[in-house]
Amino acid sequence: MGKEYVKRFFICALGLACFAVGNVFGVHAGSAGTNAWNTLALGISGATSLSFGTASLMISALVILIDIIFKGRIGFGTIMNAVLIAWFSDLYLAIFSFLPTAQNQFIGAVLTVIGQTIISFSTILYMSPGLGCGPRDTLMVIIGKHFPKAPIGLVKFGMEIGVLLIGILLGAPFGLGTVLIMALQASIFQFASRVWHYDPRTRKHEDIIETIRRMTKKEC
After folding, report:
1. 110 exposed, middle or buried (CB, 10 Å; 0-12, 13-18, 19+)?
2. Apex CA 126: angle with CA 123 and CA 132, to 5°?
3. 148 Cβ neighbours under 8 A, 6+ residues apart
4. Count of CB atoms within 10 A of residue 170's CB?
5. Distance CA 72, CA 129 (A)
6. Tens of pLDDT, residues 141-198
7. Rounded distance, CA 220 to CA 218, Å?
8. Burial of 38 by CB count in 10 Å (0-12 exposed, 13-18 middle, 19+ buried)?
9. Exposed, middle or buried: residue 165 (CB in 10 Å: 0-12, 13-18, 19+)?
């Protein structure tokens, strides 16, 4: 069991490290804009002295707090999502700081779509070990339970529109890339799921207590 969990934690961390690569593409998309949550992080970063990763971590911490208040399932993967994506994003942005930001909407939109594709494949990778959904997905499930008649896709779209508007009001870029991602991200994720032969609805996720209990079983 110990070796199994080492492997599961490694795969989760690897997926999150790859996820951050997608974030970097979105940041370098410049005025074309990026996905909703990154738009919010860019807005906070631009309005303060915080780095993009730190802003992302603060958002994740707030979302996790809301998840806990409303009794959402928090796993080790949820915490790793918040910390590692933020850390790797800042690390990559520092390493590749010499790369220019896209100078026009078309190139920026291409970078945004590439970034979102990387994020979609990486999401499946980090979710596959079943160590917990990301903070934002957990919040989506919580909101969905409060509006049972609304399709979960509509819940996700409504939540991200709200996040996007806050980011734009804070001065984050909004352009062709943002529009494309809002329209295509569900299709991109579905494409990634088919490639991986992965259905997120069938994967049971452990919360922190369950993982600890399983890891510390005497027979393990």
Report:
1. middle
2. 105
3. none
4. 18
5. 19
6. 888 888 888 877 788 889 999 999 999 999 999 999 999 999 998 889 889 888 988 7
7. 5
8. buried
9. middle
